[in-house]
TrEMBL record:
Taxonomic placement: Bacteria, Bacillati, Actinomycetota, Actinomycetes, Kitasatosporales
Spans through the membrane: 41-62, 69-93, 99-118, 161-180, 200-220, 241-266, 286-309
Protein name: Uncharacterized protein
Keywords on record: Membrane, Transmembrane, Transmembrane helix
């Protein structure tokens, strides 16, 4: 994977960052507001370092200090890929992302995370004749974490459904939500779901909970009956791991940072902007519910993904004993 990492870092990612830096196009955005274009050089630096380290791996092999550098660059690329999940959700239900440049950066950085991880683990090969272990349950503590992640979405889903079915919460009704969603560029599909009493984020939360339990229960390791020709076959490890890692890397830090901001706003250290709500107090109430759900679910997803990865590692076949 070393040569591929060199191509990604030296050709794709650093060139992308350099072109944006020279043209003054901001790569990073916060809350829809462009950040300073000076931060574009962070992208250039991450890509250049990845290329140099990847070339060193190709030339000298994967030494311990090179592995440390790979993991360090991997973390930096992960930071640059933050909010990729939000981009995907916006593309699914909105009319477009806030910035295509920022979305491209998130996607390229996420690809870099995968390549850097694969390069750092390139010596961790499965033994000859290795096979997938039998489907298994996660340990009790991991299932408790999954239960906490599920329960965390109950207040969030209840709030959304209460709005969808005509209730008023935080000074806002479904009619006002539809107007706000339309003004913010929501797609017709999103607006239609809202008008039917089906909140799209609740549907995504349900899928997220399904993913969470698939990571901790045996049925998440084999294809179910409704997959017909695939029934009974093993689920490739990357299939649930990819959305799990993207979700955990986005929702956990997003929720934790949000909880910290909500706590500061509650004690009056900062002022919560009303945004689309009638008052700061209304916005704070909704933020507490949403950020708590994201933080707890994101942490539970990370714990469940780690357990799934460890439980599904290929194991060597036990040699048959001579009779």
């Amino acid at each position: 994977m070393g040569p591929t990492t060199v191509v990604w870092g030296g050709v794709a990612y650093s060139a992308f960052g350099l072109s944006c830096a020279l043209s003054g196009t901001p790569v990073f955005h916060g809350g829809g507001v462009p950040a300073s274009s000076t931060l574009n050089w962070f992208v250039v630096a991450v890509g250049a370092v990845a290329a140099v380290v990847g070339a060193a791996v190709v030339r000298y092999g994967l030494s311990p200090w090179l592995r440390v550098l790979l993991w360090t660059v991997c973390v930096l690329a992960g930071i640059a890929a933050f909010s990729l999940l939000m981009d995907l959700i916006t593309l699914m239900f909105g009319q477009g992302v806030d910035s295509w440049v920022a979305a491209t950066n998130h996607a390229l950085a996420a690809i870099g995370v995968l390549l850097l991880t694969a390069t750092a683990r390139s010596r961790h090969r499965s033994p000859n004749g290795a096979c997938a272990p039998a489907p298994s349950c996660a340990p009790a503590r991991v299932q408790i974490a999954a239960a906490a992640g599920t329960v965390a979405f109950v207040p969030y889903s209840a709030m959304k459904l209460f709005w969808a079915f005509g209730g008023t919460f935080a000074g806002t009704s479904i009619e006002e939500i539809l107007v706000i969603s339309k003004r913010n560029g929501a797609s017709e599909f999103w607006l239609t779901l809202e008008s039917w009493g089906l909140d799209a984020t609740v549907l995504l939360a349900a899928l997220g909970v399904l993913l969470l339990w698939g990571l901790v229960r045996p049925w998440g390791q084999v294809f179910p009956r409704w997959t017909l020709l695939l029934h009974g076959r093993r689920v490739p490890r990357w299939l649930p791991m990819a959305p799990a890692l993207i979700g955990a890397a986005t929702l956990a830090p997003y929720g934790l940072l949000g909880i910290g901001y909500c706590a500061l706003a509650t004690v009056g250290a900062v002022t919560m902007r009303p945004g689309d709500f009638p008052s700061s107090g209304d916005a704070l109430s909704v933020s507490w519910i949403g950020m708590t759900a994201f933080a707890v679910y994101g942490a539970a997803l990370a714990i469940a993904a780690r357990s799934y990865w460890l439980r599904t590692r290929p194991v060597g076949r036990v040699p048959a004993q001579a009779e």
